[in-house]
Amino acid sequence: MAACQEAGGDAYLLVRLCGGGGILQYINIRQDPSPHALLENIDCFDVSRNGERIVFRKKGSDELNYGRIIDKNHSLSVESEAISGLSFTKNDGSFVLSYDGKWLAWVNDHGANDGRSRILTSSLNVVCINDKKQFKSYELKGQGLCPSWSPDGKRIAFYLRNLPAKYSICHVDLLSSEIKQFPPSLETRLTSIRDWAPLWSDDSKFFICEGRYSGSQSNRLIIKVIDNTLTPCPDVYYYWSSNSEIFIADPRIDSKYELHVYKCSVAALLSESQVAGEPVGIIDEPIGEFVFSSASSILFFCNFKTIWKYDFKLQKKTRIAEMPLAPIKLVLICK
Fold first, then answer.
1. CA 24, CA 292: separation in Å to the nearest integer?
2. Which of 8, 104, 141, 329 has a Cα-to-Cα distance from 19 of 20 to 30 A?
3. What is the mean pLDDT of residues 172-194?
4. Gyration radius (Cα) of the chain, Å
């Protein structure tokens, strides 16, 4: 869900398709909208923010592969090798690259109880891929989920499942090794999350995450890192645009489906806790997976097998490609 800072040159959508083949395809959205194969038989993957590095796991393997994404003649290829000397348990989506692609963070699950695979402990691990001596491990009292790097590389936010249906939101300061947990008391601990990684602002001062207090109507929370405050906010989709502005997508279902999109300030969202701001467009398609380009104000999204783009400046929707299977993950990289 990270926003891509588009520049000149080629721009590609990486598309992970559903189905047993583990297919990863790419589309050159400026040159050739046809899908092309990049990798096959993969479980899951992650790409650095600069679009230069990729990490992925093959189906049935405990090893991760790490390598370069090569852009040549308006097409992509991958050169990679297995990462040796590190232990990875099978926890899909638990590994992420830092924004520059030099560091890797992942979660390993440890104990379980009653034979029901209810994880009691886990560890959040961080390593410099080219210098494995630079390694840190943080023991967690629960199962770590959905780690997410801050853009400045100083923090990692994640969810922590302590008991069935009991979750907390955490972030670790990689310099001090201090872990902050929200909410800190068991009585007010969050009761639900979905598989939705914390989404950082570009200046690393805030992140939006999924969660709900008992009795709260909001499924979205803003964590302000500097003073460690937590604010419930409207239950809508969010796409970061810059350090001070957010694009908000508010789904409305009356006689037909419409996604009303607004642009507002972080300060207004924190103070008003309601959908307000400048209207910038209406999308009349249900949105599945999506990725947002903050530099060009374009949203790429899929509706079943079709990939669309919506240009907020032109308020125009354009069909990009028809995929053979429904996408389950979109990543935008710019060269």
1. 19
2. 104
3. 73
4. 20
Pairing label, strands 220-224, 229-233: antiparallel
Predicted pLDDT of residue 265: 78
d(CA 327, CA 324): 9
CB 308 within 8 A of CB 298: no
CA nearest neighbour of 282 among 308, 309, 317, 234: 317
Query: In the prediction, which pLDDT does 192 show?
Result: 63
Which has the higher per-residue pLDDT, 5 or 205? 205
Average confidence score pLDDT of the chain: 81
Q: Output DSSP code: residue 4.
A: B
Amino acid making up residue 75: S
Burial of 304-327, coded b for 16+ CB within 10 Å and e otherwise, reads: eebbbbbebeeeebeebbebeebb
Distance CA(135)–CA(217), nearest Å, equals 40
2 band by pLDDT with thresholds 50, 70 and 90: very low
Here the tokens at position 144 are 């770590």
Residue 319, strand partner residues: 308
CA 208 vs CA 64, 158, 289, 297, 331: distances in Å: 28, 11, 17, 19, 19
Give the confidence band of 195 by pLDDT, cuts at 50, 70, 90.
low
- Count the Cβ atoms, other than its own, within 10 Å of residue 57: 22
Domains and CATH numbers, the chain: 85-234 (2.120.10.30)
- Residue 1's pLDDT band (cuts 50, 70, 90): very low
* Rounded Cα distance, 270 and 29, in Å: 36
Local structure of residue 272 (DSSP, 8 states) = H
CB-based contacts of 18: which residues, under 8 Å, 6+ apart? 325, 326, 327, 328
User: Residue 271: in which H helix or E strand, if any?
Assistant: helix 266-272
Max Cα-Cα span within the chain: 59
3-state secondary structure 44-81: EEEECCCCCEEEEEECCCCCEEEEEEEEECCEEEEEEE
Q: What is residue 143's predicted lDDT score, i.e. its pLDDT?
A: 85
* Residue 328 near residue 17, CB atoms below 8 Å: yes
